[in-house]
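Progress against Task 2.4 (sequence-to-structure conversion) is shown through the following example record, which the project officer requested during the mid-term review.
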Amino acid sequence: MSYRIVTPILNEEKYIRKFLESFPEKHLPHLILVDDGSHDKTAEIIKADYPNITCLKHKINLGKGKSLETGALKAIHDKADIIVFMDGDMQHNPEDISRFLEVFQKHPEVDIVFGARKIGKSMPLIAFLGNKILTISINLLFRYLLNDTQCGFRAFRSKVFNKIRWESHGYSIETEMIINAAKHRLNYKEITIDTIYLEGYKGTNIFDGIVILLKILGWRILKFFKS
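Structure tokens generated for the chain above:
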């Protein structure tokens, strides 16, 4: 079972070495970094210190959704069976990659595996409340029952890419992917992961959450009229 790990990065010169050093050696050849128009020394560090790692670069910032699409298309070009998405800001533990892959090995019927963050003191209150509102909305409106719809650590079989393919450029990508998966009734599982919130958290803010919620309602209305 071949696989690729797609990680979008943006201005990560502070953490990129630590991030790559945290990777188990066996996973590094499968890593695809997508530099989404960084204007710091991220690209220079990767080129100088990790020349064997695949790093694609957008000349300008296109957003997380486009970065993941770029990486996924490269993974498909490489004939990967499984595509793993994870963030590059040290929030996700690369050791968990093997756990995602194991689910696919043990459950051939599963199309997509979602990571669910443990709820604890490390999660900012605003992030916790926003996550719960969005997760409950998706559960109620689309009947795709998950504990954490906003977690970026997830994996899917490349053969279902066209079914979950998204149009969102920004943080709505996680939500749109789930809604598309629900639309096509893809089989899924969810595994619990650890998450560390570092200084300078870059995740969704209140404005992003409101935008995503409005999009959820819009997608549900469209689904209603198409059904």
